[in-house]
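To: structure desk
From: M.T.
Subject: fold request, one chain
Message: Could you run this one when you get a chance? Sequence is below, nothing fancy, just the single chain.
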Amino acid sequence: MIRLAKIIEIPMILAITKACAKDMIRQNIFQWNEEYPSKDAFENDIKRNELYVFISDDTIIGCMVLTPTMDTEYIPINWLTVNDDNLYIHRLAIHPEKQGKGFAQILMDFAEQFAIDNKYISIRLDTFSKNARNQKFYEIRGFKRLGEIHFPKQSEFPFYCYERLCKK
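Reply: Done. Structure tokens follow.
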């Protein structure tokens, strides 16, 4: 089941993202760290009704943010569509113990249907340039890589920006 997150669930959500960060670091993927994702970011996501959790067997195993708000870092990107009515995905995570079982696919199916149901023209996201697994995951789903941005607090390496048009 996928539903909006509750403020009392932030510790569980942070436990998932911290486990993901440790798992990525073990693979020499320095995408997330102690500063990101943060408790403050998740609190703001919940206040805006943009943080979703994935529940399996009565346990939160994943999360993602669905927002219509474009981060300023995205402004220089030459997107496929105009900067209007776009859905942005951030902080998608599945606990490492649950990865490889299709749960991220289910989250993305949810996000894509959410975008269609809410009349967004496209879905946009970014992923770390050193995370080939994520890049392949999004590209197989039809996302096009369009440019790169930098988050200096996260990494010296760029993040690739992707967009996919919504199917009508």
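Reply (cont.): The helical segments are 10-26, 39-47, 103-117, 132-140. Let me know if you need anything else for the meeting.
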